[in-house]
Specification:
Chain A has 240 residues and is α/β, with parallel strands linked by helices. Chain A has helices at residues 5-11, 30-37, 50-59, 62-65, 99-112, 133-148, 158-166, 186-200, 205-222, and strands at residues 20-24, 42-47, 68-72, 85-91, 113-124, 170-179, 183-184, 225-226, 230-237. Chain B is globular. Classes of the chains: A alpha/beta (240), B alpha/beta (298).
């Protein structure tokens, strides 16, 4: 699988070569692969999703795997020692982190960052008011709130994430626009709808059925849409 | 209607080529009167570079009358698939005759596909001998090459043909989204620019291959192109803006006459895309290619 240009662009001005890196929220491993491709010494790919961990493990070549540790862990409390890594990436992580947890995860990332370490945070600005896909994300959030009281998605403004990480002693370095507009393709729309359907399926029928019907309608109506902005923020940890 | 389309220097030549090059293959599907109108339409948009080939049915013959009428306003590219001296010389004379003109501005090796062909073309008794002789005689002004083959082979051709002045090859966000070497036409562009070659881009409007014959029989295809093209004004404009934003000279209009006017319009209204917008288009097409694994993010 190829490394997305968003990842390449976000890493392009960071010192990856030889660095001990951590991908926070490894997902399907796009950033882990990007870091390995750019010569990372070692990558800790951290995910709390067992399926993602398994898929990533099986997709790495033996050479890649020798430089990668896949950790199934909660990002609020990782098994890594303090000051352990030179470069941390959170590519598309924060939007799946509920506001109540964001502070603890950012504190944990700051703890494991070595003095002078780099942090890259890539995410989406809140969508424009006229974005049709907002309706889909609203249903996804409704299902999630009903299921466990937390939102599935939160699109944090870049200025806000900047202040959150600055609050943990990181110095803001730069902001780049990765995508403008963001292409929400049919496969993205369906992936989000599938996730919401899965969450809704655990709810009582009287709640689940209307949500599922609304998801079907929205998938049909939205199709695909290019809207919003994806940004990349870079920070440095102080030399302490 | 606009006549002030942006023009760019065609490599190290003195020619200033408009950002759209008219792919005159489109004339093959029109009667003479329609062909004349399409040529006037191109000129009204300010398009000053046309490209034709003897393989395009009777496009050369249909281009002839208006080409002769507006000879000073049109920089004409033509090409030959012949790889040896005799065949190339014969095809050149035949094209000059069918077009009814004395000089072809740019004569191109057409559709390079194999290393052996390159050996023949560049070797003793090869097509390039005929090209060089014709240039000395004033039958052609410049020498070019076209290929939608292996990028490495095209780069090899750049290395081996010292007097090459232009290159025609594919580039679009679909191939730019792929990282395998077989799609690395960006490397071709980089090399062409290093060598001061003019770059003429084909397949800018390709969406992808046609569905299989079982799904869509050839006779039921709605367009004459051998690939499935994008075909809405918005998509055409998006593709044009994307490709013209790369460091290229000009974008060749699609072969089907139904799409040509939209391409001219896109070229007349050309606006460069910034890098985030270019990545957006690449990202959009990257995912269309691989529906699995499911991706929530970009």
């Amino acid at each position: 699988m190829s490394v997305p240009q968003t990842v390449e662009t976000a890493l392009a001005d960071r010192p990856v070569e030889g660095a001990t890196c951590l991908e926070a929220g490894a997902g399907v491993g796009n950033t882990t692969r990007g870091l390995l491709e750019q010569g990372a010494g070692h990558v800790y790919a951290v995910t709390n999703n067992a399926e993602h961990a398994r898929d990533l493990r099986s997709s790495l070549t033996s050479h890649e795997a020798s430089r990668t540790s896949i950790l199934e862990a909660d990002l609020q409390s990782t098994p890594l020692e303090s000051n352990a890594v030179d470069l941390i990436t959170a590519h598309g992580l924060c939007n799946v982190v509920p506001p109540a947890v964001l502070g603890r995860i950012s504190a944990e990332l700051a703890r494991i960052a070595a003095p002078g370490a780099h942090l890259v945070v890539d995410d989406y600005e809140p969508l424009p008011d006229d974005a049709a896909i907002s309706d889909l994300f609203a249903v996804e959030n409704a299902a999630s709130e009903l299921a466990d009281g937390t939102p599935a998605l939160t699109f944090y403004p870049s200025d806000m994430l900047r202040r959150v990480f600055e609050g943990h002693g990181l110095t803001f370095d730069r902001k780049r626009i990765l995508l403008d507009p963001v292409p929400w393709t049919i496969s993205h729309v369906e992936a989000h709808a599938n996730l919401a359907r899965k969450t809704a399926s655990n709810l009582p029928r009287r709640l689940a059925d209307p949500l599922a019907a609304e998801l079907d309608r929205l998938v049909e109506e939205i199709g695909s849409e290019s809207t919003g902005t994806m940004y990349s923020l870079a920070f440095r940890m102080s030399e302490r | 209607m606009t006549g002030d389309m942006e023009a760019r220097k065609l490599g190290d030549t003195d020619q200033e080529t408009t950002v759209a090059t008219f792919g005159a293959i489109a004339l093959n599907w029109l009667e003479q009167e329609g062909a004349n109108q399409m040529i006037e339409h191109a000129l009204d948009h300010g398009v000053n570079h046309f490209d034709v080939a003897p393989q395009y049915g009777d496009a050369e013959l249909k281009l002839g009358p208006k080409l002769r009428q507006h000879r000073e306003d049109i920089f004409l590219g033509c090409k030959t698939q012949k790889r040896e001296y005799d065949g190339a010389r014969h095809k050149l004379e035949r094209s000059l005759d069918r077009l009814g003109i004395d000089t072809i501005n740019l004569y191109q090796v057409h559709g390079l596909e194999y290393e052996e062909e390159l050996d023949t073309i560049t070797g003793e008794g090869g097509a390039l001998e005929a090209f060089r002789e014709a240039k000395a005689e004033g039958l052609i002004d410049h020498i070019g090459l076209t290929s939608h083959g292996d990028p490495d082979l095209i780069i090899d051709a750049i290395d081996r043909i010292d007097d090459l002045e232009t290159l025609m090859f594919p580039l679009n966000p679909v191939v730019m989204a792929k990282t395998d070497a077989e799609y690395d036409y960006e490397a071709v562009l980089e090399r062409a620019n290093e060598e001061g070659l003019g770059t003429l881009i084909i397949k800018a409007f390709a969406r992808g291959p046609w569905p299989s014959e079982a799904e869509l029989p050839v006779e039921d295809r709605p367009y004459a192109n051998w690939y499935e093209p994008v075909d809405t004004p918005e998509e055409m404009r998006e593709r044009f803006n994307f490709v013209a934003s790369q460091d290229v000279t000009s974008v060749v209009t699609p072969g089907d006459p139904k799409l040509v006017s939209m391409a001219f319009d896109a070229a007349s209204r050309y606006e460069p895309l910034d890098e985030a917008a270019q990545r957006s288009l690449i990202e959009k097409l990257r995912h269309e290619d691989s529906p699995v694994p499911e991706q929530l993010h970009h």
